[in-house]
Amino acid sequence: SSEVPADGTPVKVDSKQRLAPLRLGPLKLETPVLQAPIAGFTDLVFRRLVRELGGCGLMYTEMVSAGGWIKGTISPERLLGVVEEPKPLGVQLWDREPEMVEEAARRLVDLGITIIDLNFGCPKKRIMGKQGAGATLLRDPATIARMVEATVRGAGEVPVTAKIRLGPKPDQITACDVARAAESAGAVGVTVHGRTAKDGYGVPVNHDRIREVVESVQIPVIANGDIGCAESALATLENTGAAGVMVARRCLSAPWVFREITAALRGEPIPAPPQLAQQREQLLRHHGQLVDLHGDPFGTVLMRKFAARYLGGVRGARAFRSEITVAKDAADFRRIVDTLFPLEADSDPAETVEGLEEDSCTG
User: Fold this and answer.
1) What's the pLDDT tens digit per position in 273-285?
2) d(CA 50, CA 57)
3) Which helix (H) or strand (E) holds 93?
4) Sign of CA dihedral 42, 36, 101, 123
5) Among 352, 346, 322, CA closest to 336
């Protein structure tokens, strides 16, 4: 997608794109721009950063295994800090057993979570194959309905949504049936990633297929996939008729993308991205908060993958990344930033972050 102007130029917004506030059951969002749950990335400190930058209507924690949590086989560190965290805040669960998501939903209500999402879109082999969950369930709308019904029972007054892909593979498109099943089971909204599970992230998002889902249900549909700037968000909304957009991978390298999209939707000038000196300060603050929370060197190790996503398209980024991704501790991290983080915005298309793959699921 093309980048938004950095000079504050307003992006033309059609009147139909001045969206009504997004309502997900009883929840009314200030802006219909959502941050996707991304395993390994959308932790407490990252969400704090997104909240500071502004423009995001709803944030999610990392995806949580309902069964792992209930059975005690995983520690619930992905829910660290959620009780005290400002709201609204969503949690996405994955599993294939209705009783697991029902009990997990009850626990999330006790933690004060605003909204609960179910993942039926993760294309990762570990989730689909061994666990028989994620996008595997797109073959089986009836099971998805039972999963949603169970979650709604456990959630009580807390709204429940679902995140899906178009289907398991290009010759097996099930999104409309799945969305209708989720709606009939009590879901108040559905997010559609415009690719099949087999597509991974390697083909363009299919806006026409998302529009088919929009037209097949009465609940709001949120579009997801290839939304990297205000321009691509507006195009997605126009092409699909969706009620909102969810940003995934782009927010990891440009967490200010939410305020850009929200400004465009309001017909306001798009704020310029932070200068490199501001990004450097943000990077160091992010690192400092992770170290405060987790200690050192673990906080530094956690920060490496975030730091590697800075400086997309900036000359000198590759040298910075090669060092920062092996930083040993906080002192080493600071030394690398001081010596290698460029402060002059000399662009170089070869220095993008697009080739960086995370071992996470963005559905």
Assistant:
1) 989 999 999 999 9
2) 10
3) strand 89-94
4) negative
5) 322
| CA–CA dist 123, 196 (Å, integer) | 8
Name the token pair of 60.
Answer: 């999610």
User: CB–CB of 199/229 below 8 Å?
Assistant: no
Q: Class of the 15-265 domain? A: alpha beta
pTM above 0.90, yes or no: no
DSSP letter assigned to residue 207? H
| 3-class secondary structure, 322 | helix
Whole-angstrom CA distances from 12 to 219, 275, 286 are 28, 25, 34
122 catalytic? Reply is yes
DSSP string, 276-312: HHHHHHHHHHHHHHHHHHH-TTHHHHHHHHHHTTS-T
Contacts of 305 (CB under 8 A, 6+ apart): 40, 41, 325, 358
What six digits make up the tokens of 116?
Answer: 């609960």
Cα 50 to Cα 250: distance, rounded to the nearest angstrom: 12
CA 165, distance to chain mean position in Å, is 14
Which residue in 56, 122, 176, 229 is the catalytic one?
122
Tokens of 149: 């019904």
- Summarised one tens digit per residue, pLDDT across range 178-187 is 999 999 999 9
Enter the DSSP assignment of 153: H
The amino acid at residue 310 is Y
> Residue 297: is the preceding peptide bond cis (ω within 30°)?
yes
